[in-house]
Design brief:
TIM Barrel; single chain; globular; six-stranded parallel sheet; alpha/beta; binds fe (ii) ion; 254 residues; 14% strand
Length: 254
């Protein structure tokens, strides 16, 4: 299993505080069946700045530590970029790091709204050959209230990543319900942990896939797991879930 969003790099953001914390997270990940993790420290979220080169160096050091501890887990470099008006300028300056150095970029919206320039920026990214992946849209209150906005962003080429803990119900019933509705409506492309630690913000990947298996069956689990592999290979992701999952009543706008 591949996890494309995590805060496992020590001492760079609000994820793992120390190398020991990172090692504990790595062991927890392996116990869930995770073999590869993309480390995605926060960047430009108002508190943390983690530019491309520095992340690559931290990932190298963590992989060395994991090997020393004989933990069978690979860490790949990535970044969770808070959406900002100069994002493409910073990309050209070399500060922005895509997921596993592919064309896929993990973009975070503020939690309570969608900035007006979002659609244009996601379009500009695609003009440069990048594919934006919106991190945890199910935790953005404006998108939950107006799912047609999410539909428009996806229709215009953005992909989305649901948090495993959301699917597993750890953020409450409403976020779980919205997450499952997103899957039903074909608006979710990836499941990832966004793990910050082993306690309050743990992986929950196995639990999430168990929920998806029960609700939607094996084809859905396959699509999500395959998409994570295709992403790491810089290949094209599946956008259409199995036909029987397409329940279009969710948005009422198809
Ligand atoms: Fe995150």
């Amino acid at each position: 299993m591949i996890d494309i969003h995590s805060h496992i790099l020590p001492s760079v953001d609000d994820g793992a505080k120390t190398l020991d914390d990172a090692i504990a997270m790595a062991k927890a990940a392996v116990a869930e069946g995770i073999t590869t993790i993309i480390a995605t420290p926060h960047h430009r979220n108002g508190t943390f700045e983690n530019e491309k080169q520095s992340i690559i160096e931290h990932v190298y050091a963590l992989n060395e530590a994991l090997q020393m501890h004989h933990i069978p887990l690979s860490i790949l470099p990535g970044q969770e970029v808070r959406i900002h008006g100069e994002l493409m300028d910073h990309y050209r300056d070399g500060d922005i790091l895509s997921l596993a150095e592919t064309k896929y970029v993990l973009v975070e919206l503020p939690s309570n709204h969608v900035p007006r320039y979002t659609e244009q920026l996601l379009f500009d990214m695609q003009l440069q050959g990048l594919v934006p992946i919106i991190a945890h849209p199910e935790r953005n209150s404006e998108l939950v209230e107006h799912p047609n906005k999410l539909y428009e962003l996806v229709k215009k080429g953005a992909l989305t990543q649901l948090t495993a803990a959301s699917v597993a119900g750890k953020f409450g019933k409403n976020i779980k319900k919205f997450s499952l509705q997103m899957i039903e409506a074909n608006l979710a492309h990836l499941i990832a942990s966004d793990a910050h630690n082993t306690t309050t913000r743990a992986f929950h990947m196995r639990e999430a896939y168990d929920v998806i298996q029960k609700q939607f069956g094996s084809p859905a689990v396959y699509v999500f797991q395959e998409n994570a592999q295709l992403l790491v290979a810089n290949d094209t992701l599946y956008k259409d879930a199995p036909e029987r999952m397409k329940k279009k009543k969710f948005l009422g706008i198809f």
